[in-house]
Amino acid sequence: MKKKYAVSVFGLVLLILLINLIYKLFAGRAIDMFEIMAIGVISMFLLFAITWGNRQDKDGIFQDEELGKRIIEQSSKISYIILYFLILAAVLADKIVNQTSNAFLVFVLIAAMIVFPITQYLISRKYQ
C-alpha cells in the first residue's frame, strides 16, 4: 500500500471517528469504550504509516535497517518512561480525588515498575 494512500485512508477514518465522538458528546449520548479504543487503534496505524517508509516506493526509513532499529530502541525506552509517569500520576490523582487507591491501578503501576528491568534481565541472559 502506498504511503500517501495509507495516510489518507487512516486519516479519513480517524477524522470520521472523531466527528462521531464530538457529535455524541454534544448530543448527550453515551460514549462506548470501544469507540475510544477504535480512535486509539486508528491513531496508532496512522502514526505507523507516517513514520515508516515503503520499500516499493523506496521512501523514508525502514524498520529493519540499522537506523530504524535505533529509532525503535530509543522510542521504546522513552515511551516506557512516559507511560510509567502517566500511570504514577493517575494513581496519585485517584488517591487525591477518591481518598483511596484503586487496586487495579496500583497493580498496573507495580507492573510498570518491574517490566523494564525484567525485560533487560531476560535479554541480557540471551547474550551470556
Description:
Helix content is 79%, strand content 0%. It is built from 4 helices and no strands. The chain folds into 2 domains: 1-60; 63-128. 2% of the residues are buried. The model has no long low-confidence stretch (mean pLDDT 88). The protein is an all-alpha fold and 128 residues long.
What's the layout of helices and strands?
Blueprint: H1 3-27, H2 33-51, H3 66-98, H4 103-126
Beta-strand portion reads under 5%
Described by the principal axes of the CA atoms, the overall outline is flat
Structural class of the secondary elements? mainly alpha
Number of helices, where a helix is a run of at least 4 consecutive DSSP H or I residues: 4
Mean of pLDDT? 88
Return residue spans where pLDDT drops below 50 for at least 5 consecutive residues.
none
What's the total count of β strands? 0
Biggest sheet architecture: none
Report how far apart the termini are.
41 Å
Oligomer: single chain
Return the string of H and E elements: HHHH
The whole-angstrom Rg is: 19 Å
The tally of domains stands at 2
Helix content: over 70%
